[in-house]
Design goal:
Elements lengths: L2 H8 L2 E5 L7 E4 L9 E5 L4 H16 L9 H30 L9 H8 L5 H18 L1
Parallel strand pairs: 1-3
Antiparallel strand pairs: 2-3
């Protein structure tokens, strides 16, 4: 299922912005204006990256957790957790195709290569999540 099918199925709005929007993407939590939430995508983003950015932002909404400003000290930790959940959603959706494109070969289908392909930083957490999703995709391919 691609990202456009997911937004149709979930009712998430897609807002395209150009020119002065400096982010590649962001999301709007569920609210009265957007009862299912919304994702914001930059029209100037290269077409190869749109799917990855959209899936990442959708991941924020479907994880059920948006940033809570209850305690200023917890904002950074909550943001990191939300980013990890959004990255996991993205990696889970892309890993099966990535593994297939690399002929189900663990030597070629590496977490570093997957993260780099998706424009994710090669942090310990991202690499760990990528490896888990690659392993899952390989296991499910059997």
């Amino acid at each position: 299922m691609d990202w456009k099918d997911i937004v149709k199925q979930t009712g998430i709005e897609v807002i395209w912005i150009d020119k002065e929007y400096s982010e590649k993407g962001s999301y709007i939590p569920k609210c009265s204006l957007y009862p299912n939430g919304a994702i914001i995508l930059n029209l100037n983003t290269h077409s190869d990256q749109v799917e990855y950015i959209a899936l990442h932002e959708i991941g924020h909404l479907v994880s059920g957790k948006s940033l809570s400003l209850v305690n200023k000290r917890l904002v950074h930790l909550e943001h990191c957790r939300n980013e990890a959940k959004a990255n996991r959603f993205l990696l889970r959706k892309i890993a099966p195709d990535f593994v297939e494109a690399n002929e189900y070969n663990r030597i070629w289908a590496t977490p570093e290569k997957l993260c780099t392909c998706l424009g994710l930083r090669n942090t310990f957490e991202n690499l760990k999540i990528a490896q888990e999703e690659i392993d899952d995709a390989l296991w499910n391919a059997l």
